[in-house]
Amino acid sequence: MNAAVIGFGLGFFVALQLGPMSLFLIRSTLRSGWRVGLGVGAGIAAVDGLYAAAGAGGATPLLTIHPVRLALGLVGAVVLVWLGVRTVYSALRVRVGGETQFEVSTPRRAFLTALGGTASNPSTIVSWGAIFAAASTAGLVHTTGAAVLLVAGVAIGSLTWVSALATGVALAGRSMSNRTVRITDGVAGAGLIGFGGLLAYTTLVAPAGIEPAHKV
Question: What is the DSSP string of 34-103?
Answer without folding.
Answer: HHHHHHHHHHHHHHHHHHHHHHHTT-GGGGGSHHHHHHHHHHHHHHHHHHHHHHHHHHHSPPSS---TTT
